[in-house]
């Protein structure tokens, strides 16, 4: 191969080989994912059902260790409304351990969580584990499913 073609070939081939890597890193924007996760939790406790409905789509399925019945988007929105209407407040929310598995536009988020709510002046702490599924739809993360348990 003549000397001039080698640099030209490299200019074409190297970027082509790096494009999939760049696309993979773009899809693994952990900061954006964890911000979406935090927003889901905080909007739930704030009673912001309009924002919550955008983040928790109609095909959502929720399983909780303390509830035999599976829940869906309408149940999540109603629980949020009721908590807020009763004067409930989120006092503290922490995720002391989080790990993420990436599958293209799907991420599975494994976490320990610790939170505290307040209702009628009474503080209620809660600790547990959560496995959350996030799907990137139209460039934004949505949370169509999760499972929580007490970790005991």
What does this structure look like?
This protein has 152 residues and is α+β, with helices and mostly antiparallel strands. Helix content is 39%, strand content 43%. The chain is built from four helices and six strands; from the N terminus they run αααββαββββ. It has helices spanning 5-27, 30-46, 49-55, 73-85; strands spanning 61-64, 67-72, 89-103, 106-119, 122-137, 140-149. It has a six-stranded mixed sheet with strand order 2-1-6-5-4-3. The N and C termini lie far apart (66 Å).
Task: Give the tally of β-strands.
Answer: 6
**Largest sheet descriptor:** 6 strands, mixed
Query: What count of domains describes the coordinates?
Result: 1
* Low-pLDDT windows of residues: 18-26
Q: Measured on Cα atoms, how large is the radius of gyration?
A: 21 Å
Termini Cα gap: 66 Å
Give the overall pLDDT as a whole number.
88
The percent range for helix content is: 25-40%
> Strand arrangement, largest sheet?
2-1-6-5-4-3
Beta-strand content estimate: 35-45%
- SS summary, helix count: 4
CATH class categorisation: Alpha Beta
* Structural class by SSE content: alpha+beta
- What shape does the CA trace take? globular
Q: Which CATH architecture?
A: Roll
CATH topology: Nuclear Transport Factor 2, Chain: A
Helix and strand pattern: HHHEEHEEEE
Task: Write a brief caption for the model.
The protein is of the alpha+beta class and 152 residues long.
């Amino acid at each position: 191969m003549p000397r001039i073609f080698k640099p030209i070939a490299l200019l074409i081939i190297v970027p082509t080989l790096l494009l999939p890597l760049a696309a993979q890193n773009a899809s693994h924007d952990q900061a954006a994912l964890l911000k979406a996760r935090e927003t889901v939790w905080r909007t739930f406790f704030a009673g912001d059902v309009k924002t919550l409905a955008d983040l928790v789509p109609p095909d959502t399925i929720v399983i909780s260790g303390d509830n035999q019945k599976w829940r869906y988007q309408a149940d999540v929105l109603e629980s949020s409304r009721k908590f807020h209407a009763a004067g409930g407040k989120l006092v503290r929310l922490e995720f002391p351990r989080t790990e993420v598995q990436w599958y293209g536009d799907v991420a599975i988020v494994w976490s320990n969580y610790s939170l505290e709510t307040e209702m009628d002046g009474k503080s209620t702490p809660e600790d547990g584990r959560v496995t959350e599924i996030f799907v990137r739809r139209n460039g934004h993360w949505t949370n169509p499913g999760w499972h929580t348990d007490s970790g005991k």
